[in-house]
Amino acid sequence: MLNQLKEMNPLIHCMTNMVVTTYTANGLLAIGSSPVMAYAKEEVQDMATAAGALLLNIGTPSVELTEAMILAGKAANKAGKPVILDPVGAGATAFRTDICHQILKEVDVSIVRGNAGEMAALVGMSGVVKGVDGSLDGDKQAVAKKVAEQYSCVAVLTGDVDTITDGERLYLVSNGHEWLTKVVGTGCLLGGVVAAFVSTVNKSDYAEAAAYAVSFYGAAAEKAYDKTKNQGYGSFAQDFIDQLGLLTENEAEQLRKVES
Amino acid sequence: MLNQLKEMNPLIHCMTNMVVTTYTANGLLAIGSSPVMAYAKEEVQDMATAAGALLLNIGTPSVELTEAMILAGKAANKAGKPVILDPVGAGATAFRTDICHQILKEVDVSIVRGNAGEMAALVGMSGVVKGVDGSLDGDKQAVAKKVAEQYSCVAVLTGDVDTITDGERLYLVSNGHEWLTKVVGTGCLLGGVVAAFVSTVNKSDYAEAAAYAVSFYGAAAEKAYDKTKNQGYGSFAQDFIDQLGLLTENEAEQLRKVES
Amino acid sequence: MLNQLKEMNPLIHCMTNMVVTTYTANGLLAIGSSPVMAYAKEEVQDMATAAGALLLNIGTPSVELTEAMILAGKAANKAGKPVILDPVGAGATAFRTDICHQILKEVDVSIVRGNAGEMAALVGMSGVVKGVDGSLDGDKQAVAKKVAEQYSCVAVLTGDVDTITDGERLYLVSNGHEWLTKVVGTGCLLGGVVAAFVSTVNKSDYAEAAAYAVSFYGAAAEKAYDKTKNQGYGSFAQDFIDQLGLLTENEAEQLRKVES
Fold this sequence. Notes:
3 copies of one chain form a homotrimer. Chain A is α/β, with parallel strands linked by helices.
């Protein structure tokens, strides 16, 4: 799947938050896709139509940006391109939860990627979200399943073990490393990487492509940790970009820890 | 003080400029706090109330953002949380100086962190600010004292020697390295680090916590310079994040160069 | 020319896109200039007047930002300071092409820096732009010449070989490395580096200074590649900042590959 991505070099239209733009773009370049950021309502429809996938990340939300996201999302829908929603901080403020509901109402979202607290907030299950890193007691698989069913999408609930489901198929991914939580934007970049991989397959394969993306991403993090564990978070953040570019399809296959 | 910070893992609400968001977030994660960026007037009151401290950095200012900062600042005041103002470029344009005065009038600011030129601009003392790196002849301690007294706050005036005062107590910190001036956002991140440390103490200890933060920060820079002096500014920028995560309470104590 | 830049330490007013602000600032600091970002219409005239050069990069455009760019550009014109336009994604959407035309109509632009597709879009020659990385069949020199003549500016058309012309003089620069295309913002930072170098010379020498800047930049990339080719794109991105700070005037002279 990775080789196919590199060959297709898909254009990924990112409407993401202002904290993670650079890191998202560099990660997407490293894996062999072509990121473009565009936010203005005057151009997002053109860009979303031209792109292979659209990423909507509400990490630094505003009313104006939400309107532009919905315009872009509808254009992507019309063009048959996958839309990935990252509901950063849903549940942390009512404003963010409302924006997510508005987007999910107006746009046919293909994938939702969030942590347990954010995903729970989308389906009215109580959770505690601290900043953008949520934690939740209870059954993460049940939350993911509810998101998938309620919004007819693939749910990608990330945590120690990542849960991917379309409501029927279930993938549990154990790749990754906790140092990812010490670098800002790693969750957001994962949303972009998922977008890149799903842009290369048919809709019926979105769940599998998402699981592949999450495992690939986690495997790169494991390699980065092995290399930089004696250095620190700054070195890890940089080396992770190295590894996203170096990791091969074969190696990703060998490191893959996915139950389904 | 560092161990307490790591244990409390405070949420720091950053309303900072668009040049330094990533670096600020990664630095705050490294020391053990939890950064969140939120700018929209619809949510900043909720976020500031939930957070342990609020950072207002006017590095890329706008009228709309100023309004949101004042809303957030008032909410933080009401919730009894410290507000840290970083008056980036005050004195460089009238617009920035005016914004600072507006914030200082409407919000009870706990800490102001700036260079000599910026601090001088806040209290009507002439200075020359070149870009965001100001220089000033005259007595920096007098300027810091005037800021502290005029705005009933702790003044953190950074430079070769950093001056911290609440108008009565005075701390002079000699930690740090000039390579910090070759990496964008190191002053801005310091504002965030000060916010994180003061969020863990009572108001009467803000000056001492700020002095601790400035010394800790400078010590991490010294370590980063020792490690990367034969490499360059890019390596220093990254290694500094490593060191912010690696520096221990004991080591910070040993490296501490604070006169009071 | 580099030594002169370091001695003058010019202030470069950057109105650039939100993806590349940090990298642009760190690159400009590394070479010895002093970057400042300012976007609000209330202050851009003051900042552009005070600065040594103004960079207008439309990578994440909006109507409001365009208005501010035109205000800043006119102020720079009035103050006799060079204006550098980076038409990111011109041709990719009508919105971006229109913004460029608007700026070029209202502001006396000194330098335009873009890839082949973007430059072609500015002068109505058909091209295909994929994301922000354009490709174009046909004669790049002809496109550059047309841009230079139509807008009475220096055209800097970057690609495998970089073409710099003011319509009469022609410089072909072979420095650089393709890994630059795997790191976001390297084209944008080049616009800033060109701004820094042209700010140190008279208008009649803009073309030569731009060619010097492009060669210097490419030489630093070659050194960074030599050092990090076994590591990856993340390491290259960081080491490139190191090399921008380390490269000396003599070394740049030795590595220089410019035909004219």
